[in-house]
Every structure is written in C-alpha cells, then in structure tokens.
Amino acid sequence: MRIFLNDDAHDVEPGTLAAALEALGYGGRKIATAVNGRFVAAPARPATALTDGDRVEVVAPMQGG
Amino acid sequence: MSFYGVELKSRLLLGTSRYPSPAILAEAIKASAAEVVTVSLRRESGSDRAGQSFWSLVRALGVRVLPNTAGCHSVKEAVTTAHMARELFDTKWIKLEVIGESDTLQPDVFGLVEAARILSEDGFEVFPYTTEDLVVADRLVEAGCRVLMPWGAPIGSARGLNNVYGLKSLRAHFPGIPLVVDAGLGVPSHAAAAMELGYDAVLLNTAVAEAGDPVAMARAFALAVEAGRTAYLAQPLEPRDMAAPSTPVIGKAALGD
Lengths: 65, 257
Known about the structure:
heterodimer; A: mainly beta; Ubiquitin-like (UB roll); five-stranded mixed beta sheet; 1 helix; globular; B: alpha/beta; five-stranded parallel beta sheet; 9 helices; 12 strands
C-alpha cells in the first residue's frame, strides 16, 4: 500500500497510522498527526486504519514567532 | 498581568525563531526574562531530530509556550494546526494567525474571527494576531477571545507602531482585555512606546533574533518594556503646542534695561 507522508511516497504494509509511523521511524517521538487534512489525536492512531493513497502529515515542535 | 487566569510578571513575550544558534536563543530568552515564548510546528521526517532537540531546549528553560498557527492561510488549516499544537505542546493557548495577504502578512480578519469562534468553543484559549481594527476586535471578543494581539507593523518589518491612534483607540475601548502589541517592533523604543500607551505586553521575535547581539538586545527590550510600563503608570505629560518654562519665572532677578 502506498501512502504519502509529508508529501513523500512510502510503501507500507496495510494497517494503522500507528503501525505506519512506527515503521517509518517515528516511534516514541513527540509528533502530531493528521490524515487527509484531519487531525488524528495520538490515542486514536492505533485505531486509525490507513488506505492506499492516504495523505499523512507528521509535525514536530519548531521555532516560531 | 494575567492571560486567561495565568499570572505573569514579565510583559515581554519572545519568539524563538531566526536566532544564530540554539545556545544564543537560550541565552536571549534568559536575558529577556520572558516567561512566555512562542513556538510553532512543522513537518519532520523520520530521520530528522531537529524538532525533538528544540523541544528539549525549550523545556529546559522552564518557560511557558504559546504555540502559533503561523503560515496558515485558511480557517481549516489554522484550526487543524491548533489541534495539533494543543496535543504537541499540551496547552490550551494558541496564537491564532490566519494570514490574508502574502506581502504584508496582514491577518485575514474574517477568517480569524471564524477560527477564533471555532477554537474558543472547543476549549482553546485564543490569542488572536489581529489588526488594530475596533470592530474586528469586538467580534473577536464576542467569539471568546480574552486577549487581543494587534500588530504594530507587518511581521519582521521593524517599523514600530504604524498606527498609534488606532492602538490608542483599541486600548481605550477595551480597558479590561489584556492587549499585546504583536509584530513589527524593531528597536526597544518601539516597545517602550507601546507600553506607554497602556498596552499590557509586547511580543517580538526578529528584532532580537536578528540583532547583531541578540542576547544584549533581549536585555535592552526587557528594560524598555519595564521603562514604558513604569512611565504609563506614572501618567506621562500630554504634548502641548507651545513652550512652558520649566524653571519658575517668579522671583527672577530684574537685570534688563
């Protein structure tokens, strides 16, 4: 299954958002997520199934004004 | 001074962007004595740790964070970003930016009011980055905002207070709402001027971060904010058109012809 994470294409096993994040190196990280433009809270990631073509956004803290 | 029930001693809020190094950022925050710093959130790849190390640095400083929705041009983007920020930074505070115009980074005040209402109803404590427009300010308060942050001038422009009359009007119309001049300040005298108008605080970033010596400039702004606030409480003299001798004329020796 192909998903787009921060616009980059990744081939991942069909499964949940939590599983995809773990597989792509985000395990244990301080991040926030959205799928197809909708916020997905951390507790909801294990129950959020991804489908082919989904667009996932992963953000982290950054400097800001 | 308090924002949404949180008491603060420092009236200077500082941004964390554009510093020459993380070490200088940390030193500048300490020199400013700011208790609130603004932060943001951006995409991070699985191999990149920049966000994680930045967060460790901010946490070590023990300051309160005010996340922003910088770069958002729509209500939907801003609201989703706010939700991500609330989870990431574990705070209800959000500096709400909905940008309407790219050259001036002027707020889209229509989108701002709409997003402020959605977020306030969802339990956020919204700090709207707005203009000095009184009617917009009224709508923001109606939407649930209990702090207003009008711009001094466009973000990063260092122009100071572009519309002193408008800022004074806003202060007069909202005596009970904490008002923060956010953006456009270039030098400490701009900050002092905002405080002399009775503003509760100022928020700035670039003027410190891009100074030749950011740490010294942070200290200079802190002093200016304190001076301006003290001057406001001391009730400044109103400007007058004609001279008024400061030295008493009565009793002056008659030495003329």
